[in-house]
Every structure is written in C-alpha cells, then in structure tokens.
Amino acid sequence: MPPDTIDDPMALLHACHDKVRHFCDLLGRLTTHIQKEGCDEQAREAAAAIRRYFEVAAPLHHLDEDTDLYPALIQLDPGLADAAAELSGEHALLDALWTSVRAWLIQVQAGGVPRGSPPPDCLSHFALRYRQHADAEERMLYPHAARLSAATRHQLASAMVLRRRQP
User: How far apart are CA 104 and CA 110, in angstroms?
Assistant: First the structure.
C-alpha cells in the first residue's frame, strides 16, 4: 500500500530514477547469469522483479511526469515546453522498446532461454536509452522543480499518492 502522503515529490521521482538504474543493471546481470547458468530460479526471480518494476512502477512514474510535473514546470517557465515535449515523447519510445524486453523476460520466466544463448540487442539498447532518459530529465527539467511553489509541490504529491492507490 502506498503512503498516505508524500513530503517531497521530487525525492520520489529521483528515487524512481535510482530504481530504473538498478533494474537496468539487473537486466545486464541477468543476461550474464543466463549465459552461465541458464534460466534457473534466480534468473526467473530476477526476470519477474524487472517485469514488475517496468510494468507497474515505471508507467506510474511516466504519468507523474507527463500529467503533473511537466505541465507544472511549463506553467512556471514556458521555455521548458520543448524539453518537456522531447522527454515526454521518449516515454512512448521507451514503452515501445519495453515490448521486446518484456517478451524476452517472459521467456526467461518460462525457462525458455537456453544457457549460453546471447542476449538480444534490445536489452542493452533499452537499458542504455532508459539511463540516458533519466539523466536527461535530471539535467534538463528536475532542477527547475525547486522553483515550484509549496502548493504546487503539494498538488504533485497528492496526485502521485492518488495514482498509486488506483487499482
């Protein structure tokens, strides 16, 4: 169950980026593990954890940004609109890349990826693009959030909590 309140919505968004990096790293370790050990229980559990994050938390994170954070930042500074549009567009690209990664992870969970088989290129491409995207957000937009009013930060936090309470 998500918390009733979030004191600092930007801290949660940064934490999401830390998790993105963690699960991208885990994806890389998983490919190495499968080459050496095959789809054992540890591999299947890692695949499930990666899927859970990118199927549940990552889409919520994208909605936090596209629906709440980016519009608030554009209202604060219309000059951020191009960066927000670019980064929002990358969410759709990441979702498209995820489709292939997800299919491979489902194979792993079913034990259908043979030991020693090389990982598909989509895995490293997905991880690289996701890391680059998080870095770009932290560089291009996140610093501007410090200028948001307390009321706007509270609205962001409330929307984030509500979004996570949806079934």
Answer: 10
